[in-house]
Amino acid sequence: MVLLQPDRFLNELTSLYEKHTESGSVWVTMKHSCMKHKVTRVKLEKQGEEFEYKCLIRATDGKKRISTLISAKDQLKFQSSYATVLKAHMDALKKKAKKEKKKTEPDKKQTDPAKKKASVKKSAPPVAKS
């Protein structure tokens, strides 16, 4: 996996989308990360040092993988650029075909035989003979 600068990542992401306009898929994932091992984070916390959490963004088409790290300061700038890339390449989406639901008439409804047996077993309480 290649860790790129944010601008370079957006350029590569654009090329992935253009490559798969007609067919194929591109997956993008985002993850909260500080890019330090747990042992290192615990040591830093004990020493009183602070570390910054970043957003790890990964994209793949199944063959090529790219990723970038976004800090909290750069988040707004990256998000607006990322939104522009997404809007530009969302025109190749296909509408999902809707299936027609079959309407059944109340008379012709099929019932489960087990339910019929259960309803037969339920009978009126016995009448007391006098």
Question: In words, what does this structure look like?
Answer:
Helices cover about 35% and strands about 20% of the residues. It has four helices and four strands; from the N terminus they run E-H-E-H-E-E-H-H. A hairpin with a 4-residue loop joins strand 3 and strand 4. The longest helix is centred in the middle third of the chain and has 15 residues.
Please outline what is shown here.
By secondary structure, this protein is α+β, with helices and mostly antiparallel strands.
Instruction: Provide a count of the helices.
Output: 4
**In sequence order, what are the helices and strands, one letter per element?**
EHEHEEHH
Task: Tell me about the largest β-sheet.
Answer: 4 strands, mixed
- Span between termini: 88 Å
Structural class by secondary-structure content: alpha+beta
User: What global shape is seen?
Assistant: flat
Note poorly predicted spans: none
**Gyration radius, to the nearest Å?**
29 Å
Based on DSSP secondary structure assignment, what is the total number of beta strands? 4
- Main-sheet strand order equals 1-4-3-2
In round numbers, the mean pLDDT is 79
Helix content: 25-40%
